[in-house]
Design goal:
Helices cover 14% and strands 0% of the residues. The protein is mostly loops. The chain has one domain. It comes from Balaena mysticetus.
Length: 28
């Protein structure tokens, strides 16, 4: 089971990281 924390490390490359309101990195 995957647990999604409130804040995850962002890769800065995926669309979610680049979005100002995104705090879920797709690379995780």
């Amino acid at each position: 089971d995957k647990v999604i924390p409130l804040f995850v490390p962002q890769c800065g490359k995926c669309s979610v990281c680049k979005h100002p309101e995104g705090n879920f990195c797709l690379k995780n």
